Fold this sequence. Notes:
Layout: E1 2-5, E2 8-11, H1 15-53, E3 60-65, E4 68-73, H2 83-90, H3 94-97, H4 108-114, H5 118-123
Amino acid sequence: MIAKIGKVERVFDNKLLSRAVEDFCEIDAQIRNLKERLDDFKFEIVLAAQAILEGDEAATISFIEGENKVKVAFGWKIEVKDVDNLARILGDSFDALVTTEIVYKPERKLKELALNNDRLKECLEIKEKSPSVTVVQNA
């Protein structure tokens, strides 16, 4: 077993960790293969749903085969791209039909500073992220 931190490698013996890494990679590959198969089936189901709903106003359809049931829901993502023109078109209704929000996002430098500065910590909500584990593909 090798642990690599940056460019430094350290060799050690940990059979439990070795097995966990092997199993993780194996299961990850199985999930990716199943995801591809699932996407193929999803494509077929969506095609059928579109054909059956053609000309219908409905946005959902269910298919039932024995005890198996799937539901297909169609929807739209609608975002404002020309706020000035939209405001002119909607006039006085603009405020009732559009939500305006201000979002403050800390830049990378502020995130780095905040971890070591108690005064900054008072102004920010800092939560530790869950560790992520990903399979590294060999190049």
